[in-house]
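Standup notes
- HV: blocked on the assembly model, inputs below
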Amino acid sequence: MSTHERASSDDASLYRRRFEALVQAHSAFVWTCDREGKFVDEQSGWAAYTGQTFEEYSGIGGFAALHPEDRRRVWKEWARALKNQVSLYVIDMRLWHAATQSWRWCTLRGVPVLDESGEVIEWVGSATDIDEAKRNEVNLRESERRFRSIMECVQAVGLTLDAHGRITFVNDYLMTLTGWTREEVIGRDYFEIFIDPNCFIRDHFYTGIVSGDIFPHAENEIITRSGERRMVAWDNTVLRDSNGEIVGVASIGRDITEKRKAEQELRKSEERLRLALQVSRTGIWEVDVKSETLNWSDECFVIYGVPKQTFDGSADQFWKRVHPDDLEMVRAEIQEFVAKKKPLVQEFRIVRPDGEVRWVSSLGHVTLDENQNVVRLTGTVIDVTSRKQTEEALRKAERFAAAGRMAATVAHEINNPLASLVNVVYLLGKQELQGPERELLSIANAELSRVVRISKQTLGFYQGEKVPANVDIVALVEDVKASFEAVSLKRNISLTTKIRGEKFALHGIGDEIRQVLINALTNALESGATRVEVRVRGIRQGRGNRRSGVRVSVIDNGKGIDRENVRRLFEPFFTTKGEKGTGLGLWVSRGIVLKHEGEITMRSSTREGRSGTCLSIFLPTVATVPLATAADAKV
Ligand code: ADP
Ligand code: MG
């Protein structure tokens, strides 16, 4: 053997050993078989792996070491490979593994060894244990399948991305939400399709993929096909392959757009409410029925004048502040409120710790539990002292105006007889009179002058101090209506307005027209009515439709006015309310309306079931309202 030959034979054995080592490193074992696919030589690898003896595996006995379910398939494939002399035969199968006494997945590879003429001499091959990889693959496929099927039936967004941010899975929910179809998005860049280009999360995604550290929870907007934005709350996990390499991200998201909107709305409305309460100085109170504790908002402390630090949350704190004269009424009303579970509307006086008496108005409602028991009383309270004072002032003003007009009328009426008396005395003074008569006449003259002076002064008292201006009658009506809201609520009377047309400005004295409306509404609400409506309507009326103006009607379904009383309504001091009425309201109203060159009429019915009263006032748009006093009060 030449050196060369030895060297090459050494080389050959070296290569052979290397090859075997290599195969060993990657495989379970190597094998050889004859051209018909039968084991003829000893297969140490096969024997070691499967535990079969030579007798057992020789020929086609090796098939006995295959999993019964795989035998048929492998047999067929193998027969085809032998027949076709494929250049590389690869097949997966389960082989019995003697060491672990279990079936394990293996990949069998085989190549035919050919002679010079191209005929197959034998087959050589390797078997590789792929059980772990196979199991991982199966598990992965299984968990992926599960993920997908779960994702299709939950009301949530389901999404997986590969490590490049390309979409590998989307569920129907996401498609419905965004208006895309699966074909349009699968394989495409997620961020390009769904995310605002200015959004930072793309960067987060890539750094997360690299570091394996992604945000498990995140909220961000996605953009729908039509460009709408939806807020989604995500739960994210990284996906890894069997080697632990990050291959992508799986995310489940909830569409929280509406929730966010609702939260924002709630925050806004809470804020608005808080502001409204603050601005309107409305206090909120709450009584827990079971624990008998009282809860006051900051504004309550201001209204009741109680320092917050002295407040112990007992109901006593409230009762101590109620005016002694109103205590009984307040108690009775609250008892009724709780017993009948109806809304509470009350007005009463309180005495603050410093002794100041103030009026408050309180509204409340009850909260019931599932057994209809009252668990909580909640309500508002406002200080209405200044309104009460205004009301009182208005009442006084009505009386005062009435008294003034009365005096003026009387003065006017006696002016003419006075004038003739002055003439008579003057003529008498021209007569030849003796001492005592002349004396008496001069006394009469002096007294008469005094009466004339008083009369003139009286006329001067009743001055219309107000200057006429443009009056927005609709605003006025709404304003007056608002001031009666609490009263009508309390008495369970529906008070409505009906405005036909838009702007009805007219020239007049707003305060006086207000007085007319206040009286009309007071009368209507005291008429026993359950419904009161104020109608405002622009009209043309008068001869030849020359005058345009506004008609305000106050209509009630009260008990009406008896026929014999109708004539007397506009008389001063006519009232059916005894001590409570002045009987001056309509009389003063008529004076005011006439001064505005308008008309005031009253229609009423006392017929059972159809009773009611309509007070109708017409005010012309342009009236020459005198600057000073009413026409009938001129000297
Ligand atoms: P007062 O209201 O002080 O009694 P008014 O001059 O305003 O004085 O009213 C006079 C009377 O006219 C009332 O006492 C009442 O009998 C009657 N009256 C006025 N308006 C109505 C109405 N809407 N329904 C029934 N009666 C009314
Ligand atoms: Mg009245």
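- HV (later): unblocked. Residues 519, 522-523, 585 surround magnesium ion (ligand 2) (CB under 6 Å). The longest strand covers residues 102-114.
- Next: hand off to the docking folks.
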